[in-house]
Each structure stands twice: as C-alpha cells, then as structure tokens.
Amino acid sequence: LAELGHKEAAITCYDAALEIKPNSHEALYNKGVALAELGHKEAAITCYDAALEVKPDFHEALYNKGNALAELGHKEAAITCYDAALEIKPDYHAALNNKGNLLAELGRKEEAIAYYGTALTIKPDLHEALASRGNLYFAHGQLEEALADFGKALKIQPDNQLLIAQKAMVLLQMGDESQRVPALKAMTTAISDPKVLEQLQQNLQKAVGSGFSELQQQLMRQNLEMLNLDSGSLSAEAMQTQIQEYQDFVQEHQALIQKSPEAWSCIMNAAMCDAASDLESAISQLQKAVELVPEYRELLEDDPDSWSDAIRNDPRFQALLKDAEA
Q1: Fewer Cβ neighbours under 10 Å: the N or C end of the chain?
Q2: What is the rounded radius of gyration, in angstroms, for the C-alpha atoms of the chain?
Q3: What residue segments make up the domains of the chain, in order of their start?
Q4: DSSP 8-state class, residue 92
Q5: Residues in contact with 221: Cβ distance below 8 Å, sequence separation at least 6, in sequence order
C-alpha cells in the first residue's frame, strides 16, 4: 500500500501488525517512513526511536531519523544520527552525502567536500553528491571545479533540467563570451519549470558575495537580476530578446572580437559593471579594452547610448571618445 501511495492505509496495516507483534522493528520503521512522507516528522522520529530500542544497529532507522531531524532544522542532531549509521555501515553513501549537505549548510566547506568525495568513491554515479559539491564550489567562486562536477552529473542524468541550468549559470558566471548564447538558450529552456527556477535562484543567492572577485560579484548580481529574484518569475521573452541582441551585436563587431578576445571580455565586463552602477570598474575595463585594441574607441563612439548617463558624462569616457576622433 505504501509503495502505491496509500500512506494512511499502510499506517493502519503497520498498526495492526504492531498489535500482534509490538517489537517488530521493521513495522515500526516502515510506519516511521510513511509518517515522514506525510510530513509528520516528529511522529516519524518516535517510530524510528522505538525501532532502534528493539534493534540498536538498525542503520536505516538512524539514517531516516537523521533526515527527519534535518528537515526540522536540528542539523547537529541529524549529523549525530548519520555518524551513528556510518559507524554501523561505513560505506553508507546516502548518509555520507546527507552529512556533507548539512556540513555545507553549517559553513564547514572543506569537511563537506571531503564527505562528498568519500560518497563518490563508494558510488561514482551518485549524481546528488556531484550536484551538491558543484553547488558548494560555485558558492565559493570555484567555477572550474563546479563546471566539472555539473558536467559529470549530466553524464549520469543528461535530461536533468536543474543540472542543465546550473551548468549554464556557471558558464555565464565564467564570462566566456563564446559560451554566452548557448548557455542562455539552455537556461531559457531549463527554467521554464518553476521548481528549477526557484532552486537556481536559491543557489545564486547563497553564492552572492562569497568567494567571488568584485567583477564576478557584479556579474552574479546581473545574473540574479536576469532571473528576477524579487518576483520569483522570469520573462522568457526578455531572455530571448537578450540572446538576439547579443547575437546581433557580436555579428556586427565580429572583426574586433576576433582581434582580441581579451579586449572583448573587458568590454563585456564594463557593461556588467555599468549595469551594476560600478562606475570605477566600468571605466577601468573600458580603458583596458582600448589599450589592448585602440579600434575599440570607434565602437564606443558609434554606440555611446549603450552606456549609462554616469559613464557617458564621465571625463574619462569623454577622453576615450576624443581619442577616437583624433
């Protein structure tokens, strides 16, 4: 009955079994699982404890008790349960992964990564551990490591839309302009699922200001704005417009882009800083771009309206335009 989704009816059966055999640790445990799935976490913990009184080495009961405690916010108590389960079954990859998740939530990054690594040594295709470790790397600005983990997870679950969106966000955050349009397209499709969008927003919010350079933080804030974090919704039409505008711009300036990808990245960085009202960083990036490729002054002269009033009115920007006229 439980496997068919009839949780209440299953609980009635477990109760009947327990009237006949009150010390049936399996019935107590299964009743706890059904209660937990119905959202009755405290009652589930009571059942797990009763099962553990009968069978103290019941590692599944310890693990599920840990899960229930974690969902109730009792992280340290949950870790204690996972540790007890791991003493009985050291290769319990699910307990290793979930302990890693709690350590990450508690800010114990290196310990969390170690537990994910151990879980993956035991079960290399544990995509949950790869995704969790990837998110932890991402939150601390370790983009190459995050990209590698999301890539491995996608080999295991190629149709997982959250993983697709997470990988796309890493690519956007890395600022590789050659990956921008493919990443935006992948993102647009993946986040059509509201649950994927919500999870991605949460991951991004955790990452803001953590382990990123100032320029990366500007890009992060732009990505959050793109996902419209405040309203919890995304305009797919707006993203498609952004893709088209970017493709048109790249096509128009292909020769300059090919001349110096580094200078092009500076222009894109300047645009991000401008969007985030970081005038000093934006001007600095523009100056670096024209230092690398003087012809970029012509681009600024041809399209000054792409920049904010603050930049256009800045004497340093005006100086760049005058150099183009000279």
Answers
A1: C
A2: 26
A3: 1-124, 146-251, 253-326
A4: -
A5: 208, 276
pLDDT score at 120: 98
CA dist., res. 109 & res. 201, Å (int)? 20
Distance separating alpha carbons of residues 51 and 57, to the nearest angstrom: 10
Give the type of residue at 120.
L
- Report the interhelical angle of 127-139 vs 143-156 (nearest 10°): 160
- Whether the CB-CB separation of 225 and 261 falls below 8 Å is answered with no
Lookup: tokens for 246: 């970017």
3-class DSSP assignment, residue 56: coil
Structure-token match 């916010």, residue found: 73
Contacts of 238 (CB under 8 A, 6+ apart): none
**For the whole prediction, is pTM greater than 0.85?**
no
Q: What is the pLDDT of residue 115?
A: 98
Q: Cα separation of 25 and 43, whole Å?
A: 15
Task: Calculate the alpha carbon distances from 250 to 29, 91, 303 in Å.
Answer: 60, 51, 14
Q: Which of 259, 274, 276, 255 is nearest to 317 (CA)?
A: 274
| CATH 1.10.287.380 given to domain 1-124 | no
Q: Which DSSP helix (H) or strand (E) runs through 49?
A: helix 41-54
Please give, one letter per residue, the 3-state secondary structure of 126-143: CHHHHHHHHHHHHHCCCH
What pLDDT is recorded for position 224?
61
Sequence letter at residue 56: P
Q: How long, in residues, is the chain?
A: 326
Average pLDDT over residues 211-219: 59
Q: How far apart are the first and last CA of the chain?
A: 82
**pLDDT tens digits, 245-304:** 666 666 666 676 677 777 777 777 777 676 666 788 778 888 888 888 887 777 777 666
pLDDT computed for residue 188 by the predictor: 73
Tokens for 223, please give them.
Answer: 């990505």
Report pLDDT digits (tens) over 33-62. 888 889 899 999 999 999 999 999 999 999
